[in-house]
Amino acid sequence: KGIDELGDPRGKRVLLRSDLNVPLEGEAGDSVITDDGRIRASVPTVQALRDAGARVVVVAHLGRPKGSPDARYSLAPVAKRLSELLGAEVAFATDTVGESARKTVASLNDGDVALLENLRFDARETSKDDAEREAFARELAELADVFVSDGFGVVHRKQASVYDVATLLPHAAGQLVLAEVRAFSKVLDEPERPYVVVLGGSKVSDKLGVIDNLLDKVDRLLIGGGMAFTFLAAQGYEVGGSLLERDQIDTVRGYIERAADRGVELVLPVDVVVAAEISADAQTSVVPASAIPADQKGLDIGPATIELFRGNLADAKTVVWNGPMGVFELTPFAGGTREVAVAISSLVDGTSVVGGGDSAAAVRQLGLDEGAFTHISTGGGASLELLEGKKLPGLTVLED
Ligand code: 3PG
């Protein structure tokens, strides 16, 4: 159910859960937002509610404070950025359900926006105790007439502002949550073929559930990033000083066999960029994936692998990409991630979905055209759990 189905929101106080968990650098009180992608993605729903005359009360978390106020995790810099993006004032409450929040909400006129301080400054937000969470959700619910859930990045969390509050107020999904759910439903339930999934990132153990769920659906699985070395090791190669999860080798061997049984093409790196150390001025070379020297680490996919992946992407009608191909934060190891992203955005004539977290950050940090992908997710853990085929509490609670 979208916000249109909530009835006329004019004059109503709308509690809007957004995911404004952005990276900050610098000292508390003087910090800088280094990637405002999530704030920008939250704007359309805030704007739509303002345009409809609602009094918008945005709630969000930042980082993982320990359940009490901590200046390093204040949402104050986020309020400032949100206000710049909206071109309108955002009233900032210095607490979440206390006097400042109540006064700030009471002062709103139709079309105004407030942001309340970090939800996780109250330990009840993330409590495992249902009664504690419900008590906090009730205090949040008292600040509003309706609830809109738009924090896609947190819908996998059973937390007071994500789950419990939806059981207390009339509710709807915001535009971002709807767009995310539609994009993932399309690639999970009705993919056009050929269907290619590109997985990367450092640890294969983070992706086991995704591989497990997608192996039965895809035509090709392309593996890069640090996780590829456990696949190479499972095939009997020496991987030198590269990342290797020895305890996953048997599981990975099982996936290799399952892919072969199902006729899924499993495409692994054929060459890698190696260096003795992970640094921006490292001495690099390209070696075959079957011959990584003992004193070198594989830190990116090599040029022959990029070509191989391009060939496998060229005719794809559906692509899901999750996880960088190398240590893209450092220039010598960014090429694989950049070229794979460019290939997906330029070659694929169909649906391309980029999982959130590192891959979405890579698209932005490498200055690539975000509009060239069908969808770039704002959710890291949430998008992974959807790809694992899980039901997410923050979505199921909206379905009643
Ligand atoms: C994220 O960064 O993935 C979301 O904001 C959720 O944050 P969390 O992992 O701290 O719950």
List the helices and strands and how they pair.
Layout: E1 13-17, E2 24-25, E3 32-33, H1 37-51, E4 55-59, H2 76-86, E5 90-93, H3 99-106, E6 113-116, H4 130-141, E7 146-149, E8 171-173, H5 175-189, E9 195-199, H6 208-214, E10 220-223, H7 228-234, H8 249-262, E11 265-267, E12 271-275, E13 284-288, E14 297-301, H9 303-313, E15 318-322, H10 335-347, E16 351-354, H11 358-365, E17 375-376, H12 381-387, H13 393-396
Parallel strand pairs: 1-4, 1-7, 4-6, 5-6, 7-8, 9-10, 9-15, 10-11, 15-16, 16-17
Antiparallel strand pairs: 2-3, 12-13, 12-14
Helix pairs in contact: 1-2, 7-8, 9-10
The chain binds 3-phosphoglyceric acid.
Helix and strand pattern:
EEEHEHEHEHEEHEHEHHEEEEHEHEHEHH
CATH 2nd-level architecture of the largest domain = 3-Layer(aba) Sandwich
Helical amount: 25-40%
| Quaternary form | single chain
Uncertain stretches:
none
CATH superfamily of the largest domain: Phosphoglycerate kinase, N-terminal domain
**Main beta-sheet strand count, sense and barrel state:** 6 strands, parallel
In the sheet with the most strands, the strands line up as: 5-6-4-1-7-8
CATH class of the largest domain, anyone?
Alpha Beta
Q: How far apart are the termini?
A: 9 Å
How many DSSP H or I helices?
13
Output the CATH topology of the largest domain.
Rossmann fold
Radius of gyration: 22 Å
Bound molecules: 3-phosphoglyceric acid
Shape: elongated
Number of strands: 17
Count of the domains:
2
Strand content: 15-25%
Structural class: alpha/beta
What's the rounded overall pLDDT mean?
97
